[in-house]
Amino acid sequence: MQKIILYTIVIVFSLVTKAVAQELETIEKSTEWMARGSKPESYEMGLLKNSTDKAQKVFTIRSIDEKIEGFGNLMQSSKPDLYLGKTIKMSGYVKSENVKSWAGLWMRIDYYNDKVLAFDNMQNRAIKGTNDWTKYEVVLFVPQDATDFSYGVLLDGTGQIWFKDIQLEIVDDSIPETGITKGRNSKSISFEDKAKAIANSIEMITTEEKNALKKEVEAIDLKVKEGEISAEKAQDLKSKIAQERANNIETKVAIEEAKLAQLVQDKVDGKIFDSDEKPKRGGTKIVLGSNKDDSIGENKTEINFGSMKIYNGEKDKAEKRSKRTTSQFVFAFGLNNVITDGENLEDSDYRVWGSHFYEWGVTYNSRIFKNNNLLHAKYGLSLMYNNLRPTDNRYFVKNGDQTDLVTSTVKLDDSRFRNVYLTAPLHLEFDFTPKKLSKDGTKTYFRTHESVRLGIGGYGGVRIKSKQILKYEVDDIKVKEKQKGDFNVSDFTYGLSAYVGYGQTSLYVKYDLNPMFKNNNIDQNNVSLGLRFDFN
Hints:
Layout: E1 24-25, H1 27-30, E2 34-37, E3 43-48, E4 58-63, E5 71-78, E6 87-111, E7 115-120, E8 127-141, E9 148-156, E10 160-171, H2 191-225, H3 231-268, E11 284-287, E12 301-304, E13 309-312, H4 314-321, E14 325-340, E15 356-369, E16 372-388, E17 394-399, E18 402-407, E19 412-431, E20 436-437, E21 444-445, E22 452-474, E23 477-484, E24 492-502, E25 505-512, E26 524-535
Parallel strand pairs: 11-12
Antiparallel strand pairs: 1-3, 2-5, 3-4, 4-10, 5-9, 6-7, 6-8, 6-9, 6-10, 12-13, 14-15, 14-26, 15-16, 16-19, 17-18, 19-22, 20-21, 22-23, 22-24, 24-25, 25-26
Helix pairs in contact: 2-3
Protein name: Outer membrane protein with beta-barrel domain
């Protein structure tokens, strides 16, 4: 059965000892509202269970510290697709008691994390003191550039508020905005800023998913240490977590890459113009892969799609590329086969040119010595796809603990076996790129991926899925059959890998130390040879 690695982290909530806490349900447990703020630990926030209002759920935010320099907030977030180019009104009823500072409804429209397009938190008409139920409203226009939409209710300082019947509705454009930052006053975002925001979002996706995976694995290890779960169960949970994070990266990055591609097409078609706020910029340079011309000018912007980076001028590019730790987007492809114990590779059961591999991922390259560029530690996260095409009209059949190659009774137009792994590669890299001096000779820059490079190391990871694809024809009907399962393939993989090349291109070889199948009588170890591109 296919190993679909999927896991949901159990959120551990703090036990509240105060009597008022017994009246509240945890927000994440009861609704889509999220407890946030600059000082969320200073408040009790949640759904009021013993509400006398039968028609509506009532929520509350109550301070638990005598003095608070900050605020507590219940909020929701979503995509603004339904509201683009429209005026939206948020309304709701709020009751307050002893609010010393202020409280209010709030709504914010953003372009990624890069720019606030519209915002209102009622601070200029705030709720203060003690008041009975009163209806309040926030009205904002949603610009076409908007990507994120958030709203909620906040309490600044001490006191307590209750709120209910929060509603969103599209209203006529003649209704004036209440925001201190009005959406209709938002200027068009330049092509450079849009591309930069998307590129930053792509980089953040991988970073956030890796950090989340690390925390989840640590939580599982803690449960094993405390005896709550077995080591075997822990390994299963880790495998499921790895799949979830890999799927998240693949799905989220694909969405952002599609946005980036559409943005470039709109620029080419003349649908996007530079912002009037940046008339002195030196233009935009778009690079799809490696760039031999290192200079881009003082005010010119370079968008490098290969490395997913934005450089705002030559100085910015020099500083970013000479950091002690840099990041790269890695893509590799080539031939794939197996080394069978007791047999030569030339007698392989798999087609040499028909079997292939490909790999993509993100790596970090850290210079080991502060003032020497030779040695680097290279590490990251990759998806590896290993494909095998059997010879002589054969395909794989699982027979108990064994997996055999058998001859098909029908003529196969294609027989392909694929294993997909999420791996963490680690290499010691020797980079012979010489150090460079700034034009005025006052600063030394250490670049990478500009000369001969040699990497030696290995990788370890988990299998995400195995699949066999068979194509054949029966009674003039073309059939494509997909078989998913574990096929007795090893759940974990580890091996050695190395690469040597110049600049961003290198010859790449990797060899699995573990057998491809768990219990077969004869061990078969996967081996790959191809080209690797490290877009710096």
